[in-house]
Amino acid sequence: MFVDAQTRRDLELFDARDGGPSVATTLDHTRTEEGSRKLREILRGPTSSAAEIRIRHEAIRYLAGSELSFGVRDDGVRRVRRYLESRYTTLPRRWTVISFAEALWYAVRFPEVVRHARRGVGATRHFVASFTGYARGIADGDLPRGLDDLVAEGLKVAGSLQSFLRPARTAWAALTYDRELRGEARASVERLLEIVAELDALSGVARLLDEGFVLPRLDEGGSTLRGEGLWHPFVPEPVGNPVDLEGGDALVVLTGPNMAGKTTYLKAVGVCLYLAHCGLPVPARSFRFTPVDRLTTGLSPEDNLRQGVSYFLAEVRRVKNVVEAVARGERTVAIFDEVFRGTNVRDALDATRAVLLGCARAKTSMFLFSSHLVELADELADHPRLRFCHFEGELSGDRLRFSYRLREGISNQRFGMELLRREGLPDLLESIPA
Fold it and tell me: What is the CATH architecture assignment of 31-208?
Protein backbone atom coordinates (compact mmCIF):
# COMPACT_ATOMS: atom_id res chain seq x y z
CA MET A 1 0.00 0.00 0.00
CA PHE A 2 1.35 3.40 -0.95
CA VAL A 3 1.56 5.93 1.89
CA ASP A 4 3.46 9.17 1.43
CA ALA A 5 5.52 11.11 3.95
CA GLN A 6 2.78 13.66 4.62
CA THR A 7 0.31 10.95 5.63
CA ARG A 8 2.89 9.41 7.97
CA ARG A 9 3.36 12.83 9.57
CA ASP A 10 -0.39 13.48 9.76
CA LEU A 11 -0.93 10.19 11.59
CA GLU A 12 2.17 10.76 13.78
CA LEU A 13 3.33 7.23 13.08
CA PHE A 14 6.99 7.80 13.91
CA ASP A 15 7.18 11.38 15.21
CA ALA A 16 4.58 13.09 17.37
CA ARG A 17 3.87 16.75 16.70
CA ASP A 18 3.97 17.69 20.38
CA GLY A 19 7.22 15.83 21.05
CA GLY A 20 5.40 13.07 22.93
CA PRO A 21 5.18 9.36 22.08
CA SER A 22 4.47 8.47 18.45
CA VAL A 23 2.20 5.63 17.35
CA ALA A 24 5.26 3.40 16.98
CA THR A 25 6.40 4.23 20.51
CA THR A 26 2.91 3.69 21.94
CA LEU A 27 2.65 0.23 20.39
CA ASP A 28 6.18 -0.83 21.31
CA HIS A 29 6.14 -3.67 23.88
CA THR A 30 9.33 -5.28 22.61
CA ARG A 31 11.99 -6.56 25.01
CA THR A 32 15.10 -5.78 22.94
CA GLU A 33 16.50 -2.85 21.00
CA GLU A 34 16.68 -5.07 17.92
CA GLY A 35 12.99 -5.93 18.31
CA SER A 36 12.08 -2.26 18.58
CA ARG A 37 13.97 -1.56 15.36
CA LYS A 38 12.19 -4.46 13.65
CA LEU A 39 8.77 -3.21 14.78
CA ARG A 40 9.45 0.13 13.11
CA GLU A 41 10.55 -1.68 9.97
CA ILE A 42 7.24 -3.56 9.96
CA LEU A 43 5.37 -0.29 10.46
CA ARG A 44 7.18 1.24 7.48
CA GLY A 45 5.99 -1.55 5.20
CA PRO A 46 2.17 -1.63 4.93
CA THR A 47 1.07 -4.10 2.28
CA SER A 48 -1.95 -4.59 0.07
CA SER A 49 -1.37 -8.36 0.01
CA ALA A 50 -4.10 -10.18 1.91
CA ALA A 51 -1.91 -13.31 2.02
CA GLU A 52 0.97 -11.49 3.75
CA ILE A 53 -1.42 -9.88 6.23
CA ARG A 54 -2.98 -13.24 7.11
CA ILE A 55 0.42 -14.85 7.69
CA ARG A 56 1.32 -12.14 10.18
CA HIS A 57 -2.10 -12.42 11.84
CA GLU A 58 -1.61 -16.16 12.37
CA ALA A 59 1.81 -15.62 13.95
CA ILE A 60 0.52 -12.91 16.30
CA ARG A 61 -2.53 -14.97 17.27
CA TYR A 62 -0.34 -17.99 18.08
CA LEU A 63 2.12 -15.95 20.16
CA ALA A 64 -0.74 -14.25 22.01
CA GLY A 65 -2.03 -17.67 23.03
CA SER A 66 1.38 -18.96 24.11
CA GLU A 67 2.13 -19.03 27.81
CA LEU A 68 5.86 -18.66 27.09
CA SER A 69 7.25 -15.12 27.40
CA PHE A 70 9.85 -13.88 24.97
CA GLY A 71 13.03 -15.50 26.23
CA VAL A 72 16.01 -13.53 24.86
CA ARG A 73 17.41 -10.75 27.03
CA ASP A 74 18.23 -7.33 25.63
CA ASP A 75 21.63 -7.14 27.33
CA GLY A 76 22.62 -10.44 25.69
CA VAL A 77 21.58 -9.18 22.25
CA ARG A 78 23.44 -5.90 22.82
CA ARG A 79 26.65 -7.74 23.77
CA VAL A 80 26.55 -9.83 20.60
CA ARG A 81 25.86 -6.76 18.46
CA ARG A 82 28.78 -4.84 20.03
CA TYR A 83 30.99 -7.90 19.60
CA LEU A 84 30.24 -8.23 15.89
CA GLU A 85 30.83 -4.54 15.29
CA SER A 86 34.08 -4.37 17.28
CA ARG A 87 37.34 -3.57 15.50
CA TYR A 88 39.64 -5.93 17.39
CA THR A 89 41.96 -7.85 15.09
CA THR A 90 41.34 -11.53 14.44
CA LEU A 91 43.82 -14.38 14.32
CA PRO A 92 45.06 -14.95 10.73
CA ARG A 93 44.16 -18.24 9.09
CA ARG A 94 47.43 -20.26 8.95
CA TRP A 95 48.76 -23.80 9.29
CA THR A 96 47.68 -25.12 12.73
CA VAL A 97 51.14 -25.22 14.38
CA ILE A 98 51.96 -21.66 13.32
CA SER A 99 48.49 -20.50 14.27
CA PHE A 100 48.83 -22.08 17.71
CA ALA A 101 52.20 -20.37 18.28
CA GLU A 102 50.78 -17.07 17.08
CA ALA A 103 47.89 -17.41 19.53
CA LEU A 104 50.36 -17.84 22.40
CA TRP A 105 52.18 -14.70 21.28
CA TYR A 106 48.84 -12.82 21.20
CA ALA A 107 48.11 -14.00 24.76
CA VAL A 108 51.44 -12.52 25.97
CA ARG A 109 51.67 -9.42 23.79
CA PHE A 110 47.98 -8.53 23.34
CA PRO A 111 46.02 -10.05 26.24
CA GLU A 112 43.12 -7.62 25.64
CA VAL A 113 42.54 -9.24 22.22
CA VAL A 114 42.24 -12.67 23.81
CA ARG A 115 39.93 -11.32 26.53
CA HIS A 116 37.74 -9.70 23.87
CA ALA A 117 37.57 -12.98 21.94
CA ARG A 118 36.62 -14.99 25.04
CA ARG A 119 33.91 -12.52 26.03
CA GLY A 120 32.52 -12.27 22.51
CA VAL A 121 32.40 -16.02 22.00
CA GLY A 122 30.85 -16.46 25.45
CA ALA A 123 28.22 -13.78 24.78
CA THR A 124 27.34 -15.40 21.46
CA ARG A 125 27.12 -18.83 23.09
CA HIS A 126 24.67 -17.56 25.73
CA PHE A 127 22.65 -15.70 23.08
CA VAL A 128 22.33 -18.80 20.88
CA ALA A 129 21.43 -20.96 23.88
CA SER A 130 18.70 -18.57 25.07
CA PHE A 131 17.24 -18.36 21.57
CA THR A 132 17.31 -22.13 21.16
CA GLY A 133 15.49 -22.65 24.47
CA TYR A 134 12.82 -20.08 23.58
CA ALA A 135 12.38 -21.33 20.02
CA ARG A 136 11.96 -24.93 21.12
CA GLY A 137 9.46 -23.78 23.73
CA ILE A 138 7.15 -21.96 21.31
CA ALA A 139 7.60 -24.76 18.76
CA ASP A 140 5.95 -27.15 21.22
CA GLY A 141 2.66 -26.80 19.38
CA ASP A 142 1.12 -26.50 15.93
CA LEU A 143 2.97 -23.46 14.62
CA PRO A 144 1.31 -21.53 11.78
CA ARG A 145 3.17 -21.58 8.48
CA GLY A 146 4.99 -18.23 8.59
CA LEU A 147 6.05 -18.60 12.22
CA ASP A 148 7.03 -22.22 11.66
CA ASP A 149 9.38 -21.22 8.82
CA LEU A 150 10.95 -18.47 10.94
CA VAL A 151 11.53 -20.68 13.98
CA ALA A 152 12.82 -23.57 11.88
CA GLU A 153 15.30 -21.31 10.12
CA GLY A 154 16.45 -19.89 13.44
CA LEU A 155 17.08 -23.32 14.92
CA LYS A 156 18.97 -24.36 11.79
CA VAL A 157 21.19 -21.27 11.96
CA ALA A 158 21.77 -21.78 15.69
CA GLY A 159 22.80 -25.39 15.01
CA SER A 160 25.29 -24.30 12.36
CA LEU A 161 27.06 -22.09 14.91
CA GLN A 162 27.54 -24.73 17.60
CA SER A 163 31.01 -25.80 16.44
CA PHE A 164 32.31 -22.26 17.13
CA LEU A 165 30.66 -21.93 20.52
CA ARG A 166 32.33 -24.60 22.63
CA PRO A 167 34.03 -23.34 25.80
CA ALA A 168 37.36 -21.77 24.77
CA ARG A 169 39.86 -23.19 27.28
CA THR A 170 42.93 -21.97 25.42
CA ALA A 171 43.91 -18.70 23.76
CA TRP A 172 44.15 -20.51 20.44
CA ALA A 173 40.56 -21.85 20.73
CA ALA A 174 39.18 -18.44 21.75
CA LEU A 175 40.92 -16.65 18.87
CA THR A 176 39.96 -19.37 16.37
CA TYR A 177 36.28 -19.27 17.32
CA ASP A 178 36.41 -15.46 17.28
CA ARG A 179 37.86 -15.46 13.77
CA GLU A 180 35.06 -17.68 12.47
CA LEU A 181 32.24 -15.87 14.24
CA ARG A 182 33.34 -12.46 12.98
CA GLY A 183 34.40 -13.85 9.61
CA GLU A 184 32.70 -16.58 7.60
CA ALA A 185 29.99 -17.24 10.22
CA ARG A 186 29.19 -13.57 10.77
CA ALA A 187 26.29 -13.63 8.28
CA SER A 188 24.74 -16.50 10.24
CA VAL A 189 24.99 -14.59 13.54
CA GLU A 190 23.50 -11.51 11.86
CA ARG A 191 20.63 -13.58 10.50
CA LEU A 192 19.92 -15.05 13.92
CA LEU A 193 19.82 -11.54 15.39
CA GLU A 194 17.29 -10.59 12.71
CA ILE A 195 15.13 -13.64 13.46
CA VAL A 196 15.20 -12.81 17.17
CA ALA A 197 14.24 -9.21 16.36
CA GLU A 198 11.23 -10.36 14.35
CA LEU A 199 10.08 -12.78 17.04
CA ASP A 200 10.43 -10.03 19.63
CA ALA A 201 8.44 -7.59 17.50
CA LEU A 202 5.64 -10.11 16.91
CA SER A 203 5.57 -11.14 20.58
CA GLY A 204 5.37 -7.47 21.57
CA VAL A 205 2.41 -6.63 19.35
CA ALA A 206 0.69 -9.85 20.45
CA ARG A 207 0.47 -8.26 23.91
CA LEU A 208 -1.72 -5.52 22.43
CA LEU A 209 -4.56 -8.04 22.25
CA ASP A 210 -4.68 -7.86 26.07
CA GLU A 211 -5.09 -4.07 25.85
CA GLY A 212 -8.30 -4.00 23.81
CA PHE A 213 -6.75 -4.21 20.34
CA VAL A 214 -8.14 -6.73 17.84
CA LEU A 215 -6.85 -8.50 14.75
CA PRO A 216 -8.86 -7.26 11.76
CA ARG A 217 -10.90 -9.45 9.44
CA LEU A 218 -10.18 -9.27 5.74
CA ASP A 219 -12.89 -8.96 3.10
CA GLU A 220 -12.29 -10.21 -0.42
CA GLY A 221 -13.47 -8.18 -3.39
CA GLY A 222 -15.03 -4.73 -3.47
CA SER A 223 -13.86 -2.02 -1.09
CA THR A 224 -15.06 -2.02 2.50
CA LEU A 225 -13.95 -0.47 5.76
CA ARG A 226 -16.11 -1.26 8.77
CA GLY A 227 -15.45 -1.24 12.46
CA GLU A 228 -16.97 -0.77 15.89
CA GLY A 229 -15.47 0.89 18.92
CA LEU A 230 -12.51 2.53 17.12
CA TRP A 231 -10.30 4.64 19.37
CA HIS A 232 -7.01 6.48 19.11
CA PRO A 233 -4.10 5.03 21.11
CA PHE A 234 -2.99 8.53 22.20
CA VAL A 235 -6.24 9.19 24.12
CA PRO A 236 -6.06 8.11 27.80
CA GLU A 237 -9.80 7.42 28.23
CA PRO A 238 -11.05 7.02 24.66
CA VAL A 239 -14.64 6.87 23.44
CA GLY A 240 -15.05 4.17 20.79
CA ASN A 241 -16.83 5.02 17.56
CA PRO A 242 -17.92 3.15 14.42
CA VAL A 243 -16.70 3.50 10.86
CA ASP A 244 -18.68 2.32 7.85
CA LEU A 245 -17.31 3.02 4.37
CA GLU A 246 -17.78 1.17 1.12
CA GLY A 247 -16.51 2.01 -2.33
CA GLY A 248 -19.33 3.01 -4.65
CA ASP A 249 -21.74 3.41 -1.76
CA ALA A 250 -21.35 6.71 0.08
CA LEU A 251 -18.79 9.37 0.84
CA VAL A 252 -18.94 10.37 4.51
CA VAL A 253 -18.85 14.03 5.56
CA LEU A 254 -18.36 14.99 9.22
CA THR A 255 -19.68 18.19 10.75
CA GLY A 256 -19.68 19.56 14.27
CA PRO A 257 -18.14 22.28 16.44
CA ASN A 258 -14.48 22.62 17.31
CA MET A 259 -13.17 20.31 20.05
CA ALA A 260 -16.06 17.86 19.52
CA GLY A 261 -13.75 15.10 18.27
CA LYS A 262 -13.75 15.26 14.46
CA THR A 263 -9.97 15.40 13.96
CA THR A 264 -9.26 12.74 16.58
CA TYR A 265 -11.81 10.47 14.89
CA LEU A 266 -10.24 11.01 11.46
CA LYS A 267 -6.81 10.17 12.86
CA ALA A 268 -8.17 7.08 14.62
CA VAL A 269 -9.64 5.77 11.36
CA GLY A 270 -6.38 6.47 9.55
CA VAL A 271 -4.22 4.80 12.21
CA CYS A 272 -6.48 1.73 12.34
CA LEU A 273 -6.43 1.30 8.57
CA TYR A 274 -2.66 1.78 8.42
CA LEU A 275 -2.01 -0.77 11.18
CA ALA A 276 -4.39 -3.19 9.50
CA HIS A 277 -2.31 -3.02 6.31
CA CYS A 278 0.81 -3.78 8.39
CA GLY A 279 -0.85 -6.98 9.57
CA LEU A 280 -0.97 -5.67 13.16
CA PRO A 281 -3.73 -5.42 15.79
CA VAL A 282 -5.84 -2.25 15.71
CA PRO A 283 -7.42 -0.24 18.55
CA ALA A 284 -11.06 -1.23 18.05
CA ARG A 285 -13.69 -3.62 19.30
CA SER A 286 -14.04 -5.06 15.78
CA PHE A 287 -12.53 -4.15 12.43
CA ARG A 288 -12.85 -5.52 8.89
CA PHE A 289 -11.46 -4.14 5.68
CA THR A 290 -10.50 -4.79 2.09
CA PRO A 291 -6.81 -4.05 1.44
CA VAL A 292 -6.42 -0.97 -0.75
CA ASP A 293 -3.63 0.44 -2.89
CA ARG A 294 -3.25 3.86 -1.29
CA LEU A 295 -3.98 5.73 1.94
CA THR A 296 -3.77 9.53 1.78
CA THR A 297 -4.63 12.06 4.47
CA GLY A 298 -4.99 15.81 4.36
CA LEU A 299 -5.04 16.65 8.05
CA SER A 300 -2.27 19.26 8.25
CA PRO A 301 -1.21 20.54 4.81
CA GLU A 302 2.19 22.24 4.75
CA ASP A 303 3.06 25.38 2.82
CA ASN A 304 6.56 25.90 1.41
CA LEU A 305 7.85 29.48 1.30
CA ARG A 306 11.01 28.57 -0.62
CA GLN A 307 9.02 26.90 -3.40
CA GLY A 308 6.27 29.53 -3.34
CA VAL A 309 3.61 27.00 -2.29
CA SER A 310 0.86 28.59 -0.23
CA TYR A 311 -1.27 26.72 2.28
CA PHE A 312 -4.21 26.69 -0.12
CA LEU A 313 -2.07 25.51 -3.05
CA ALA A 314 -0.74 22.70 -0.84
CA GLU A 315 -4.34 21.66 -0.16
CA VAL A 316 -5.22 21.76 -3.85
CA ARG A 317 -2.23 19.62 -4.80
CA ARG A 318 -3.03 17.17 -2.03
CA VAL A 319 -6.55 16.68 -3.37
CA LYS A 320 -5.19 16.49 -6.92
CA ASN A 321 -2.88 13.61 -5.95
CA VAL A 322 -5.87 11.66 -4.62
CA VAL A 323 -8.05 12.35 -7.65
CA GLU A 324 -5.26 11.32 -10.03
CA ALA A 325 -4.81 8.04 -8.15
CA VAL A 326 -8.53 7.30 -8.21
CA ALA A 327 -8.68 8.15 -11.92
CA ARG A 328 -5.88 5.64 -12.54
CA GLY A 329 -8.02 2.97 -10.93
CA GLU A 330 -6.08 2.73 -7.66
CA ARG A 331 -8.23 1.65 -4.72
CA THR A 332 -7.80 4.63 -2.42
CA VAL A 333 -8.85 5.70 1.04
CA ALA A 334 -8.66 9.48 1.47
CA ILE A 335 -9.20 11.30 4.78
CA PHE A 336 -9.38 15.11 4.77
CA ASP A 337 -9.93 17.48 7.69
CA GLU A 338 -11.59 20.79 6.79
CA VAL A 339 -10.34 20.74 3.22
CA PHE A 340 -9.69 24.15 1.61
CA ARG A 341 -9.58 25.99 4.92
CA GLY A 342 -6.71 28.01 3.42
CA THR A 343 -8.96 30.22 1.27
CA ASN A 344 -12.00 32.46 1.69
CA VAL A 345 -15.38 30.97 2.54
CA ARG A 346 -16.85 31.44 -0.94
CA ASP A 347 -13.96 29.70 -2.68
CA ALA A 348 -13.95 26.98 -0.02
CA LEU A 349 -17.67 26.33 -0.63
CA ASP A 350 -17.26 26.05 -4.39
CA ALA A 351 -14.07 23.97 -4.22
CA THR A 352 -15.40 21.61 -1.56
CA ARG A 353 -18.66 21.10 -3.45
CA ALA A 354 -16.77 20.18 -6.61
CA VAL A 355 -14.51 17.73 -4.78
CA LEU A 356 -17.31 16.02 -2.86
CA LEU A 357 -19.50 15.57 -5.93
CA GLY A 358 -16.57 14.32 -7.99
CA CYS A 359 -15.26 11.86 -5.41
CA ALA A 360 -18.77 10.53 -4.80
CA ARG A 361 -18.61 9.03 -8.31
CA ALA A 362 -15.76 6.65 -7.40
CA LYS A 363 -16.68 2.96 -7.35
CA THR A 364 -13.76 1.32 -5.53
CA SER A 365 -12.37 4.12 -3.35
CA MET A 366 -13.55 5.47 0.00
CA PHE A 367 -13.55 9.02 1.34
CA LEU A 368 -13.95 10.65 4.73
CA PHE A 369 -14.14 14.44 4.91
CA SER A 370 -14.80 16.88 7.73
CA SER A 371 -16.08 20.40 7.20
CA HIS A 372 -17.34 23.47 9.04
CA LEU A 373 -19.23 24.54 5.92
CA VAL A 374 -22.70 23.81 7.24
CA GLU A 375 -24.25 25.72 4.31
CA LEU A 376 -22.77 23.16 1.93
CA ALA A 377 -23.95 20.28 4.11
CA ASP A 378 -27.51 21.59 4.01
CA GLU A 379 -27.30 21.99 0.23
CA LEU A 380 -26.08 18.41 -0.35
CA ALA A 381 -28.00 16.69 2.44
CA ASP A 382 -30.26 14.77 0.01
CA HIS A 383 -27.50 13.58 -2.31
CA PRO A 384 -27.78 9.76 -2.58
CA ARG A 385 -24.02 9.18 -2.49
CA LEU A 386 -23.19 11.47 0.43
CA ARG A 387 -23.73 10.48 4.06
CA PHE A 388 -23.48 13.07 6.80
CA CYS A 389 -22.40 12.35 10.36
CA HIS A 390 -21.50 14.67 13.17
CA PHE A 391 -20.08 15.17 16.63
CA GLU A 392 -21.84 17.50 19.01
CA GLY A 393 -21.45 19.36 22.25
CA GLU A 394 -23.67 20.74 24.99
CA LEU A 395 -23.50 24.15 26.62
CA SER A 396 -24.72 23.90 30.22
CA GLY A 397 -24.40 27.11 32.17
CA ASP A 398 -20.79 28.17 31.74
CA ARG A 399 -19.58 24.66 30.97
CA LEU A 400 -19.06 23.12 27.54
CA ARG A 401 -19.40 19.33 27.36
CA PHE A 402 -18.71 16.91 24.52
CA SER A 403 -19.81 13.30 24.19
CA TYR A 404 -17.20 12.47 21.48
CA ARG A 405 -19.71 10.05 19.98
CA LEU A 406 -20.35 9.88 16.26
CA ARG A 407 -23.97 10.46 15.27
CA GLU A 408 -25.89 10.46 12.02
CA GLY A 409 -26.95 13.75 10.45
CA ILE A 410 -25.67 17.32 10.23
CA SER A 411 -24.64 19.53 13.14
CA ASN A 412 -25.32 23.26 13.08
CA GLN A 413 -23.70 23.91 16.44
CA ARG A 414 -21.21 26.78 16.71
CA PHE A 415 -19.22 27.35 19.88
CA GLY A 416 -16.46 29.57 18.51
CA MET A 417 -17.54 32.79 20.22
CA GLU A 418 -18.28 30.92 23.43
CA LEU A 419 -14.71 29.62 23.47
CA LEU A 420 -13.46 33.17 22.98
CA ARG A 421 -15.57 34.35 25.91
CA ARG A 422 -14.35 31.48 28.11
CA GLU A 423 -10.77 32.52 27.44
CA GLY A 424 -11.59 36.15 28.25
CA LEU A 425 -10.61 37.39 24.81
CA PRO A 426 -13.47 39.93 24.33
CA ASP A 427 -12.56 41.70 27.58
CA LEU A 428 -8.89 41.74 26.59
CA LEU A 429 -9.79 43.26 23.24
CA GLU A 430 -11.85 45.95 24.94
CA SER A 431 -8.92 46.79 27.21
CA ILE A 432 -6.68 47.75 24.26
CA PRO A 433 -6.20 51.56 24.32
CA ALA A 434 -7.87 53.25 21.35
Answer: Orthogonal Bundle (1.10)
